[in-house]
Amino acid sequence: MTLIFPNKSRTFDETRKAVRFTGYDGMFEIRFLVEAAALGQSAAANASELACLNAFDAARSTIQEAAARAYANRRGNNLTLTARDFR
User: Fold this and answer.
1) How far apart are CA 24 and CA 1, in angstroms?
2) At what angle do helices 49-58 and 60-74 cross, to 10 degrees?
3) What is the pLDDT, as a whole number, of residue 17?
4) SUPFAM superfamilies annotated for this entry (predicted)?
């Protein structure tokens, strides 16, 4: 099955300084965490909620592509995306 992202919601994880979002593989929910460092320099420098969510929104399609690649390679229902996943 193909990983899809029908839910546009995302949340900021203050403890991890990252953005959480979900995708679906059929009926299975796949949870993702994308680190602030992977969102770009402004998000990494500030690591504030507003900076990270804005950076996520601006790069949503790129992030979803990276998430789909990571899921295809690693499988699992909890995946963390780092800057390395965007190369």
Assistant:
1) 9
2) 80
3) 93
4) Shew3726-like (SSF160272)
30-80 pLDDT per residue, tens: 999 999 999 988 787 878 999 999 999 999 999 999 999 999 998 899 999
Q: Which domains does the chain have, with CATH numbers?
A: 3-86 (3.30.160.140)
In residues, how long is the chain?
A: 87
Contact 10, 58 (CB under 8 A): no
Say what the pLDDT of residue 60 is: 97
pTM value is: 0.92
Q: Which candidate, 35, 24, 28, places its Cα nearest to that of 68?
A: 24
Question: Quick one: which of 73, 74, 86, 75 has its CA closest to 35?
Answer: 86
CA neighbor of 67 nearest in space, from 56, 52, 79: 79
